[in-house]
Fold:
Amino acid sequence: MSEINKLIAKHLRELADKFDSGNSNATSDQLLDILNIVGHERMSKEQAAAYLNMPISTFNIYVSKKILPKGRKERGFKELTYYKDELDKAIYKHKSSLTI
Structure:
């Protein structure tokens, strides 16, 4: 493991320990920034629906109602792409109005 990887792992462990102990002073905006960096993971529609623990039909309804972001066409992939951090942010934003 390279030195930069070790340093990143160390900081992420320290941050996770703060979260676990309830000693994180991070604001919601700071937490969303962290999520943008560490959670930017490509998913298919099927993977995204499974990640959110909902049927694809419900996932499609939420996308059509603009509760969830629509998929993106990316070069080299036949299926639409969804990103974990974008799904997390959408669920966080609409969590009080969702029935999954």
